[in-house]
Amino acid sequence: MKIPELLAPAGTMEKLKIAVHYGADAVYLGGEQFGLRAMAGNFCVNEMQNALELCKRNGVRAYLTINSFPSDHQLAALERYLRQVAALPFDAYIVADPGVLRMVRRISPEREIHLSTQANTTNHESALFWQDLGISRINLAREMTLEDIRATTGAVTIPCEVFVHGALCIAYSGRCLLSSALTGRSANQGACTQPCRWRYSLQEESRPGVYLPIEEDHNGTFIFNSKDLCLLEHLPELITAGVGALKIEGRMKGVHYLAGVLRVYRAALNAYAKDPSRYQADPAWLEELTTVSNRGYTTGFLFGDPRDVGQSYHAGYQRSHQLAGVVEQIHQNGTATVAVRNRFTRGDQLELIGPAMKHHPFICGNLLLQEPGNDGVAVEVVHPNQRITIAVPASAAPLDLIRRADADALSSHHPEVTGVKH
Ligand code: SF4
């Protein structure tokens, strides 16, 4: 039995550090050009060098996403870009477009190539086609069922990768013109504005300005509002199906999402590796996944077409907790320097979280604001982008996160994953 690689997004240097700290085996990151998710932060070539050094030091593999579909007039720029990154020791490139594949072969013939989900590989014949072309890993389409996945892993000799967590498109991944049509930003150039998640109303021709809700609900209507994928409870099926890598979606998401999701999947894979026969998903894992930004969870297509149970008709994003700050440095006296991300006050109930499901609730004590030339102005409230010193639980370490429960969200959060029955 082989435990699949846990593959996480790393849109910025900070997210990369979080991904490494919270147990990713591999990360995918984009350059400033040609990787889908044009707004995800992304690395310039110099930053890529630093990112790769960090990965190598920690034994984490790094893949560069070059998975947009360039037009002919972009090919010269793509060629320049490929030549710029050619000397960087990425473990693989992730591509979708056959033209990009061909250019990579010409410029970096030794580079391993992973096929992106944007290539929409939905059956084992397609997988064999790509294997014949020398692709060394395929990210299977999210629309495949467990049975389809088994048929494909059984047919090919290269590893297959599946998404286990994160947003779902209402189109085949990225093959959608909604964003392009409504905002001029193309999903296939990595610039999707996710208009499928907007609220839509109906307007009758003779009554301009009168917007009729499509479904009566005080939250409005979400006609294309897919829940997020969550296959946490089905890792044993995926592992025994021979899947080689489990991918987490979310290069646009923040560090709380990344840390929360990664530590759960890391814990689950470690528990399975320790004793597969007695493995059981811990309910606390699913509970943890509701603390981070999500749109309700579904098993997607794993057991067949999700139809209406894969949709949320009631809400947009939800989460039960908000990131308060990131621990930067631990001091001898039990305090830590924390980079504040959201407002909190002295006396707030906070939680420290870290890898290996570390979780310590604590009450926020004195808040000392660090300012240039003045290392400890006592304040009652702190705000984003401030740097403070506070007392933290003894187990705190750099890159642990401090968060605060959101009272309103707590009352309405539901740790459940909907999907068709299997
Ligand atoms: S608008 Fe929605 S369905 Fe279309 S590409 Fe963007 S995320 Fe996917």
Give me the CATH fold name of the largest domain: TIM Barrel
Strand content: 15-25%
**Total number of domains:** 2
Q: What structural class do helix, strand and pairing data support?
A: alpha/beta
Strand order of the main beta sheet, please?
A: 1-2-3-4-5-6-7-11
* Main beta-sheet strand count, sense and barrel state: 8 strands, parallel, barrel
Mean pLDDT: 90
Bound molecules: iron/sulfur cluster
Number of helices, where a helix is a run of at least 4 consecutive DSSP H or I residues:
11
- Shape estimate: globular
* Oligomeric state: single chain
Which value, in Å, is the CA radius of gyration? 22 Å
Total DSSP E strands: 23
- The second-level CATH architecture of the largest domain is Alpha-Beta Barrel
CATH superfamily of the largest domain: Aldolase class I
Main CATH class of the largest domain: Alpha Beta
> Which stretches of 5+ consecutive residues score pLDDT under 50?
none
Termini separation:
24 Å
Helix content: 25-40%
